[in-house]
Amino acid sequence: MADGFTLANLPYGSIRRAPAAEARLCVALGTEAIELAPLAKRLDGIPPELIDAPNLDRLLAADAIVWAELREALQRTLAADGPPPEASFPLDDALPCLPFTVGDYVDFYSSLEHATNLGRMFRPDADPLLPNWRHLPVGYHGRSGTVVVSGTPVRRPRGQRPGPDGPTWGPSARLDIELELGFVTAGAPNQLGEPIPIDRARERIFGFVLVNDWSARDIQAWEYQPLGPFLGKSFATSISPWVVPLAALEAHRVAGPAQDPSPLEYLRTSEPWAFDIELEVALQPAGHPSRTIARTNARELYWNPAQQLAHVASNGAIVRPGDLYASGTISGSHNGTQGSLIELTWNGERPLQLNGAARIFLEDGDTVTISGRTGAEAGGERVALGQVSGQILG
Ligand code: MN
User: DSSP secondary-structure letter at 281?
Assistant: First the structure.
């Protein structure tokens, strides 16, 4: 997936060159990772401590003018002189760490098609959308401490599973994926009690990662009422190693779907805040070839990142640098465009036929890889988001 790591992209990551080495802040360019600290002398006006760092934390604490200056300076020097030889090494040798220290983690439910699919499945005789859905981006606070970087194995969670004779305790038998797009916030936090107006979203959204929000459907189904997702979600959430700056996606911003009814004033924006990002999910059973099981696009998401951010802070809650906000499962309405196994198999009615293996939910040894890149319509170069991958352990 190095394809799309161009100078127009220049995503940031926290990378070790060897298992015992320290993590260093890097950018990805072509097939190489480039450590930033050795470039400090070339970057006039950029405080060296921002890049002589293990990860993105210090840069996220700086303001949007600094992010833009660093990005321009890096593009200029890498275009003119290339990376210093001692700073670059093959992406194939890069051992990714979490690119930033994850602060608060919020997961939304922003895909109309996903919310509709689940509503049809679980409330077949009622309106698939609950009455609040078209008025606010529904979400919940998740567990930041178990957000892990791509490549980290995911142990099958144990928990209470519902059954005909009451709950039993044991490994989840309905382990699922959720294909999502997440953004990380940056810049000076708002004061407690002070909302973030939607037209200031650009100053607080640093960049994007791919997210796999692993979900134990049996644990979730038993525990979630009346307070929402809990242990069926909090055991692991995987993110991709490279944070793609918002600035790299400017040419791929598109108008989202029309919103009817028109949202309340604090959620209204005239900017195009949807992103033309093609997404793919591949499943590889142990010992079998990998197979693409879903293809979709983030551009149809009903609620966009600016609305999500404005909504989170609308009650005066503080948004800090390093908070992670995930979109919720991204699904289309057609077969093969859904971002979860529960939808792809329609709650088990249509098992997926892989090469030599059938699946409803994940089995031990399965590896799931989500990849993403911008669409081609903008005419320019595609921008890769890379991949987020994880293997299920028993
Ligand atoms: Mn989710």
Answer: E
Q: How far is the CA of 178 from the centre of ligand 1 (A)?
A: 6
Calculate how far, in angstroms, residue 50's C-alpha sits from the geometric centre of ligand 1.
Answer: 32
How far apart, in whole angstroms, are the C-alpha atoms of residue 227 and residue 140? 9
Q: Domains in the chain, ordered, with CATH? A: 2-97 (2.30.30.230), 105-393 (3.90.850.10)
pLDDT digits (tens, 9 = 90+) for 254-299: 999 999 999 999 999 999 999 999 999 999 999 999 999 999 999 9
How are beta strands 384-393 and 367-374 bridged, if at all?
antiparallel
- Of the candidates 114, 252, 288, 311, the residue annotated as catalytic is 114
Å from CA of 79 to ligand 1 middle: 39
288 is a catalytic site residue: no
Is pTM beyond 0.90? Reply is yes
Residue 270 alpha carbon to ligand 1 centre in Å: 27
Extended strands (E) in 242-301: 244-245, 253-254, 274-275, 277-284, 291-297
pLDDT-based confidence at 351, cuts 50/70/90? Answer: very high
Please state, in angstroms and as integers, the Cα–Cα distance from residue 162 to each residue in 144, 196, 233, 244, following that order.
27, 41, 16, 40
pLDDT tens for 31-90 read 999 999 999 999 999 999 999 999 999 999 999 999 999 999 999 999 999 999 999 999
Q: Which three-class secondary structure state does DSSP give residue 44?
A: coil
